[in-house]
Specification:
Blueprint (H helix, E strand, L loop, with lengths): L1 E6 L7 H15 L3 E5 L3 H6 L2 E4 L34 H11 L4 E6 L1 H12 L4 E5 L15 H22 L2 E6 L6 H9 L4 E3 L7 H13 L5 E6 L11 H13 L3 E5 L11 H19 L5 E6 L2 E6 H4 L11 H8 L6
Parallel strand pairs: 1-2, 1-4, 4-5, 5-10, 6-8, 6-9, 7-8
Antiparallel strand pairs: 2-3, 10-11
Helix pairs in contact: 1-9, 5-6, 7-8
The structure holds 6-O-phosphono-beta-D-fructofuranose (F6P).
Length: 337
């Protein structure tokens, strides 16, 4: 078989480990040919491709980003490159010209939507979920998440000392798109006193009261972790900036804010993410070898398995109010808004 592999959407730690997992398993175990498609779905429109062989795979486990490049091109939506072309038809033709039996799509929610539409067009697809946000439905975890949480936790650790020296409230905004996984996991690992997630509506007076209560208990400083996707009444401000201003106004406590941003997508992947990406890459090829197209590889419990891509498309995985970390956090006095 001859398979294509592409990476689409925001990059994240572990993508190269997944590409390596796909390629090594396809080349060594199944005797397949692998074609790397450049810049996500753009490469399927422009036919910008390369053969991936053993010589392309050195040093990938620890290397961040994606050797194939990525883009946010969504060929079934308006806009993007080649706006006047019939992009779905062009993709189908290019896949036939390239003699590809299946496309491995490594991506997040947008990629899963596109993959489902490709299946409906009769194109064989297997997908692998990746994102720092951990918001893909059907899998317990995506690779990239653990690495991003470890970067965010390290940043929160570093804020404690300066918060303490100056007796300040330090607000840190972390990524996560519309879900609060990174904020919850880094906030709890970093000992956040207030953690605000898009999934839990907050009341700024409650937040202010929680911070004043801490001062009354002799705690001279506080850490507030804010997910970028929380609702605010000022869309031109970062969520962290908005919350810091509101806290200072509400409490009079000197407050500073940090927006962590793209640093969360950089650096070498954690060993957990490398191994998850490797397992997922290998399993994608097993699905192809068994002609089980239309599946997204998933981690369920500690087992690698798969779900129907059509069940994933259009959904998002949110933090539940009953998540263990929230239940325990509340018991320990963390304010969730
Ligand atoms: O999906 C990953 C992510 O980093 C989100 O956390 C963030 O909201 C978004 O991508 C940023 O997107 P872009 O790279 O297009 O600026």
């Amino acid at each position: 078989m001859r398979i294509g592999v592409l990476t689409s959407g925001g990059d994240c730690p572990g993508i190269n480990a997944a590409i390596r997992g796909v390629c090594k398993s396809a080349l060594n175990h199944y005797g397949m040919e692998v074609i790397g498609i450049h810049s996500g779905f753009e490469g399927l429109l422009t036919k910008e491709v390369d053969v991936l062989d053993e010589s392309s795979l050195s040093g990938l486990l620890s290397q961040n980003g994606t050797i194939l490049g990525s883009s946010r091109e969504q060929p079934f939506k308006r806009g993007g490159i080649m706006p006047d072309a019939d992009k779905p038809a062009l993709i189908k033709k290019n896949i036939q010209d390239l003699r590809l039996d299946c496309i491995v799509c490594i991506g997040g929610n947008g990629t899963m939507d596109t993959a489902a539409k490709m299946m409906a067009l009769g194109i064989n697809v297997v997908s692998i979920p990746k994102t720092i946000d951990n918001d893909v439905w059907g899998t317990d975890t995506t690779f990239g998440f653990d690495s991003a949480v470890s970067v965010a936790t390290d940043a929160i650790d570093r804020l404690h000392s300066t918060a303490s020296s100056h007796k300040r409230v330090m607000v840190i905004e972390v990524m996560g798109h519309k879900s609060g996984w990174i904020a919850l996991y880094s906030g709890m690992a970093g000992g956040g006193d207030v953690i605000l997630l898009p999934e839990i509506p907050y009341n700024i007076t409650n937040v202010g009261n929680a911070l004043i209560d801490r001062i009354k208990k002799g705690k001279s400083y506080s850490i507030v972790v804010v997910a970028e996707g929380i609702k605010t009444s000022n869309s031109r401000k970062h969520a962290g900036e908005y919350i810091a201003e509101e806290i200072e106004y509400e409490t009079g406590i000197e407050t500073r804010q940090t927006v962590l941003g793209y640093i969360q997508r950089g650096g070498a992947p954690t060993s957990f993410d490398r191994n998850l990406a490797t397992r997922m890459g290998g399993h994608a090829v097993e699905l192809i070898a068994n002609q089980r197209f239309g599946r997204m590889v998933a981690l369920q419990g500690n087992k690698i398995s798969s779900v129907d891509i059509r069940d994933v498309a259009g959904k998002q995985k949110y933090v539940s109010d009953r998540d263990d970390l929230i239940v325990e956090g509340r018991r320990m006095g963390v304010c969730f808004g």
